[in-house]
Amino acid sequence: MSVAGPPHPVPPNALDRFRILSPDRESYWRNFALPGVIWLILFVILAAVGVVAYPTISAGLIAPLAFVGITFLEGHFVTPTIIGRRLELNALAVFIALAFWTWLWGPMGGFLSSPLLIVALILKDHLVPVASPQLPPG
């Protein structure tokens, strides 16, 4: 956010680190509810600082709108791609699972979409192994 020129970009950038889910998944508050609250707090802070620091509202809203755009791209495209490569899953499958489970169960479904996809793929691998006998060509 320092590109948009707010006077002190360190606190929002430091606060943004809490928005990303932590890998240990210890508590519901830290991993599910807190990132959504942090996202809203960051947007309000960036909007308030931008409106106060710049002479026009449009110039002051550049940083919060850029934050929303970057967060959208990161959450919907970058993270599913990284998760897909790391777990050897197709990024499209991760994205479709995220969209489906979020639509079906709301935010909790989005939170559980990747683990449910991984469980489904492990079950598929165990129930239909690759080396299973095939029917003869007929």
Tell me what you see in this structure:
With 138 residues, the protein is mainly alpha-helical. It has 2 domains: 1-78; 87-127, no CATH class. It contains 6 helices and no strands. It has helices spanning 10-16, 28-53, 57-60, 62-86, 91-105, 107-127. α5 (91-105) packs across α6. The protein starts with 9 loop residues before the first helix and ends in an 11-residue tail after the last helix.
How would you summarize this macromolecular structure in one to three sentences?
The protein is mostly helical and 138 residues long.
What's the arrangement of secondary structure elements?
Elements: H1 10-16, H2 28-53, H3 57-60, H4 62-86, H5 91-105, H6 107-127
Helix pairs in contact: 2-4, 4-5, 5-6
Reported for the largest beta sheet, the result is: none
- Measured between the Cα atoms of the first and last residue, the distance is 63 Å
Q: Can you tell me the residue ranges where pLDDT is under 50 for at least 5 consecutive residues? A: 18-31
The total number of structural domains is: 2
Anisotropy-based shape: elongated
Indicate the proportion of strand residues: under 5%
Name the features.
2 domains; 6 helices; elongated; 138 residues; mainly alpha
